[in-house]
Amino acid sequence: MDPNRWKSVAVRKSDYTLLKGLCKEKYRAPASMIAKLVDDYVKHLAKKEGADPKIFKQMLMENYDG
Fold first, then answer.
1. Rounded Cα gap, residues 14 and 20, in angstroms
2. Position 66 pLDDT exceeds 80
3. 1 or 24, which is more confident?
4. What pLDDT score does 3 carry?
5. Cα 48–59–39 angle (5° rounding)?
6. Which of these, 10, 26, 53, 60, could form a disulfide with 46 (CB 3.0-4.6 Å)?
């Protein structure tokens, strides 16, 4: 895998089980569900800050040190 495109994360077994249940319920793959959750949370934070979601997302990505 290309490390510039893909990253691995560890989650608690109980959270993984919940994720799989959500995915089954919504017909999504775990990666797609995680992407949706992150996108929804970024939009929530942007709204809370009174910022445009696209600009807020870009700002978060620029501040990442990895």
1. 10
2. no
3. 24
4. 84
5. 60
6. 53
The first and second tokens of residue 11, run together, are 């989650």
What is the rounded distance in angstroms from the CA atom of residue 1 to the CA atom of residue 40?
27
Give the separation between CA 22 and CA 56, rounded to whole angstroms. 27
Q: Are 34 and 23 in contact (CB under 8 A)?
A: no
Question: ∠ CA(63), CA(65), CA(66), 5° rounding?
Answer: 130
The whole-model pTM stands at 0.78
> Is the CB of residue 46 less than 8 Å from the CB of residue 57?
yes
Backbone angles phi, psi at 4, to 5 degrees: -80, -15
pLDDT 10s digits, 32-65: 999 999 999 999 999 999 999 999 999 999 988 7
What is the Cα–Cα distance from 3 to 46, expressed in whole angstroms? 28
